[in-house]
Design brief:
The protein is mostly helical and 307 residues long. Helix content is 77%, strand content 0%. The longest helix has 27 residues.
Length: 307
């Protein structure tokens, strides 16, 4: 005979149901911040880590490391929120974005705006412990983050603006460590901007048909039938600029080994987008997380094995 009182059983079921509803309630915000899709975090984080390791000669300050890693996650989340807020009337008409929380009404614009400001306040709190130049750069980066979603309406190259936003951690890392951004920092920043244009063009290729219908602009549309050629050219420019970074930072064989792996990933991406299939273009975009990781491993190993 079951000795469990029926009231206790009902109570447990009710508590389980409440917990499930509570989880669903807050998971809307997880999806809005795209924390369930960490690819954007990696793409934003890799250039920042390149910069932190180079500026510190392979020994970044622990506090600085934590601030930049947490800050990257927070700012990327805020960027996703403001992007979806700006695109909430467009996303329902694009197959890939139709199920986003703002597009479906699962999250209201007021909730999204409140979440955005909360995230930006957290980001501000993190940089307040750094020097004045880093704080000023952070404020500039925040302005670019807010501006980007709206550039897709009037600029044929919004990927350039996104590149600046995603690469902004590079000059910030140099400024936080040195109190200045030397030529090497800006060269690495330029490399990161080029890389963002490459992978976001691949990303935009997946939505090109829908974007043309709703009036969204992108480099994928601008390049047209020359899209693959332009991407290949930008990939070569990325690798060449990173060679200059390696030369300026006096990096050695491990770094160039990492660049070799990055070149192999670039070739693989070229293969994936050869037929302009949306799914394959998206796979090429995702593959950039490995490319950025290869460059970082090259940098980290080069400093690790120095005599």
């Amino acid at each position: 005979m079951n000795s469990t009182p029926k009231g206790d059983l009902r109570g447990r079921v009710s508590a389980g149901r409440q917990a499930s509803l509570l989880l669903q309630h807050y998971y809307r915000y997880v999806r809005l911040m795209r924390l369930d899709k960490p690819i954007g975090i990696w793409l934003l984080l890799w250039p920042t880590l390149w910069a932190l390791w180079i500026v510190s000669a392979g020994h970044p300050d622990q506090k600085m490391f934590l601030i930049f890693v947490v800050g990257t996650i927070v700012v990327r989340s805020a960027g996703c929120v403001i992007n979806d807020l700006a695109d909430r009337k467009i996303d329902p008409h694009v197959a890939r974005t139709a199920h986003r929380p703002l597009a479906t009404g699962a999250v209201t614009p007021a909730e999204a705006l409140l979440l955005f400001f909360a995230l930006m306040l957290i980001a501000l709190g993190l940089v307040l412990s750094l020097n004045r130049l880093t704080l000023l750069l952070a404020l500039g980066g925040a302005a670019v983050t807010v501006l980007y979603p709206f550039t897709k309406r009037f600029m044929s190259t919004p990927q350039f603006v996104l590149g600046v936003a995603f690469a902004w951690g590079v000059p910030m890392a140099f400024a936080a460590t040195l109190g200045d951004v030397p030529r090497l920092g800006w060269l690495l920043f330029l490399s990161a901007v080029i890389w963002v244009i490459v992978y976001d063009t691949q990303y935009a290729m997946t939505d090109r048909v829908d974007d043309l219908k709703v009036g969204i602009r992108s480099t994928a549309i601008l390049f047209g039938d020359l899209d693959r050629l332009f991407i290949a050219g930008l990939q070569l420019l990325l690798l060449a600029s990173l060679v200059l970074v390696g030369h300026s930072a006096q990096l050695g064989v491990w770094f160039y080994g990492g660049l070799g792996a990055a070149a192999a990933f670039s070739l693989y991406q070229t293969y994936l987008i050869k037929d302009r299939d949306g799914g394959q273009c998206f796979r090429a975009f995702l593959n950039n997380a490995w490319l950025g990781g290869a460059v970082f491993c090259g940098i980290a190993l080069d400093y690790l094995f120095r005599g």
